[in-house]
Amino acid sequence: MYEVIHAAFKPIDNSQLGIFYFFWIVLYVGINFFWDWRSPHTPPFHIAHVGEKLSVLYNASTLASSILLISSVFNKEVQKVAGDAVAPIVLASMSGFLVGLSGLSPYKPERVDNRSGAGGYVVSPPPAANIPSTGATQDAPAPLRQP
């Protein structure tokens, strides 16, 4: 277990690099799937929709690579080789980190019009579920029937 934790935060060879990527990608995808499964803002989770999660896998690998770049900058050997390129490496890794982190959410918030003065983002309510027996939806009651 110690080797996995060490490899997840400070890989030193190729085998530990594989553990590093596996650890961060599985953690990222696991958080996304759990969030998607428990969120009222996404449709019910179904295994058939897993194929639509390729962007999550891409964002997970982007985040893992960014973590690797950020952590490598603190290695003295890398600092010797990188020389003056440390600042661009940090900027590139931070932008990749932010892109990867933003893809963790299973739903996208909607932008609020700034002209109203409020601005910001809101999350849409979940889609209304049709109830065929009454014609009601989750958001609206069934219409009254005339005798």
Notes on the protein architecture:
This protein has a two-stranded antiparallel ribbon. The chain has 147 residues and is an all-alpha fold. Helix 3 runs antiparallel to helix 5. The longest helix is centred in the first third of the chain and has 25 residues, at 14-38. It is 52% helix and 3% strand. It starts with a helix and ends in a 25-residue tail after the last strand. The protein has helices spanning 2-9, 14-38, 54-73, 76-82, 86-102; strands at residues 110-111, 121-122. The model has no long low-confidence stretch (mean pLDDT 80). The protein contains 5 helices and 2 strands.
Which helices and strands occur, and which strands form pairs?
Blueprint: H1 2-9, H2 14-38, H3 54-73, H4 76-82, H5 86-102, E1 110-111, E2 121-122
Antiparallel strand pairs: 1-2
Helix pairs in contact: 1-2, 2-3, 3-5
Strand order of the largest sheet: 1-2
Structural class: mainly alpha
Rg over CA atoms: 22 Å
Globally, the shape reads flat
Assembly type: single chain
> Which stretches of 5+ consecutive residues score pLDDT under 50?
none
C-alpha termini separation: 70 Å
What is the mean predicted local confidence, pLDDT?
80
Strand content: under 5%
What characteristics describe this protein?
mainly alpha; 147 residues; flat; two-stranded antiparallel sheet; 3% strand; 5 helices; 52% helix
Short description:
The chain has 147 residues and is mainly alpha-helical. It contains five helices and two strands.
